[in-house]
TrEMBL record:
The lineage of its organism: Bacteria, Pseudomonadati, Pseudomonadota, Gammaproteobacteria, Chromatiales. Residues 3-32 form the Protein YjdM N-terminal domain. It comes from Rheinheimera soli. SUPFAM superfamilies: Prokaryotic SH3-related domain, Zinc beta-ribbon. Residues 46-113 form the Protein YjdM C-terminal domain. This is Protein PhnA. It holds the Pfam family Zn_Ribbon_YjdM. PANTHER family: PROTEIN YJDM, PROTEIN YJDM-RELATED.
Amino acid sequence: MSQFPACPQCNSAYTYEDNNLFICPECGHEWSATATADAAEGEKVIRDSAGNVLQDGDTVTVIKDLKVKGSSLVVKIGTKVKGIRLVEGDHDIDCKIDGFGAMKLKSEFVKKA
């Protein structure tokens, strides 16, 4: 019926676009147009805090002091992390940090170096 994708919640074909959002008038669901484009590629794209696409093996820099759960240690701002691995889940970066060991980080707290 239209060139816009069907609603992911109710499969309605009557979606429309408003700025960078797709909106379903039947169920009221809103979703990002860029997320739809990324999903169409078939692969989940993980981006850093600045919007740069991250890949396995990249070097990133921590942009905020991060408390280590279960410890009194803190990963300081500006800490460089080399050779990251991207994984599924809430914490989508798996890495080793010198002085801390193996950790999982959220991509929203790092920027590509």
